Amino acid sequence: MDSYFELRKNGSSVTTEIVAGISSFLATSYIIVVNPSVLSQTGMPFTGVLTATVIVSFFSSLMMGFYAKNPILVAPGMGLNAFFTFSVVLGLKVSWQVALGAVFWSGIVFFLLSVFNIRTHIVKAIPRPVRYAVSAGIGLFITMIGLSNAKFIVSDPATLVSMGKLTPALLTFVAGLLVTAILVIRNVKGGILIGILFTTLAAYPLGRWWGLEAAPLISWKGLVSAPDFSLLFQLDLVNSLTWAVVPVIFAFVFTDMFDSLSTFVGIAEAANLLDEQGEPRNIKKSLLTDAVSTTLAGLVGSSPGTAYIESAVGVEAGGRTGLTAVVAGFLFLPFLFLAPLLSVVPAIATAPALVLVGVFMIRPVVKINWMKLDDAIPCFIAMALIPFTYSITHGITWGFLSWTVIKIASGKKNEISPALLIIDVFIILSMLIG
């Protein structure tokens, strides 16, 4: 195991990787319930989507660990599931079978782009200062998700956002945040995982387990159910290739590509998971994994799979190799039968970990030359728009466009690669289609 995953070479150990895998899983496991709740609004059976979600998460994370050897989880993506449901099926009146076909074909496009190294060239086209900004922006984005999950920040019609009311649940989150921060500062092994468990136990007396009563602790009745494979191979491969659906396939390709690229680049820069050329480690294999995940999603009945930014929780817990993703992948499997048990870990329990990961992700921002305004302005735009638009894709695309325009206007066209110009064209096309 040590030789295959190169644990000692990466300064890690089996114990560290296991703890990191558990931490990443706990931060990501919400998708097992949330994805079905979103996609079932299309008419797809909730239990069928739940089974598909677990299958995609299990196989994709294992492939990322064993094949790409990166500590990054892959699962059906948030945002992509909303686009599938509200824009494609409910908005364009496309049947969910055809939409699944579009997911499958977008995965095939991903695969071809990855095999011919086109996506790797796209990664290399991202200016290095923008990479640092994307990492910082993702950190702010994860922090905002954590604060929102804890109801520390809430929507406000007058000021857009505001601080939530000082409830017992919010105080529990604050306590969990401080305890987790102290554990991390003192370099306690598994500090983030201990913090999640502490916050869960602290929340229990308040009866905050997604509405479950505080006692009894677990009622097994109704928690165990057989998996539902009714969505397997229900996609419509023929009608999903019509001209009317081509823009949908393009939208899936574009959104998933930049979400995954941003995640790989951001985590790699923050955790120094880079190769000898300073590029994200095993990027081609990682992108191939993402492509296979999306193709698999269409076959089994889910929206596209993508790399998860919450993987940063496990990386911050010490995960440096593919063993982290393998551990997390296996943890998905029991929830084919035990999905209701996920209610045991409330949102406020993982929220402190997400907030602290923001500290870890924002570190590369010091590498940006803020006195060089033609670098600083595009970087700031990318960094700010990721959390403010609640979209990694929007942040990185506007970062690209502003970089290009500002560099041309500053007489520095030599700092714009031909690949970036091609990406800009596709960005504009995607905006026009959208």
From TrEMBL:
Belongs to the nucleobase:cation symporter-2 (NCS2) (TC 2.A.40) family. Azg-like subfamily. One of its GO terms (cellular component) is plasma membrane. It is a multi-pass membrane protein. The keyword Plastid does not apply. Pfam families: Xan_ur_permease (PF00860). This is Permease. Keywords: Cell membrane, Membrane, Transmembrane, Transmembrane helix, Transport. It is found in: Cell membrane. The chain crosses the membrane at residues 12-33, 45-66, 73-92, 98-118, 130-154, 166-185, 192-211, 231-254, 323-342, 348-366, 378-401, 416-433. GO terms for molecular function: purine nucleobase transmembrane transporter activity. The keyword Transferase does not apply.
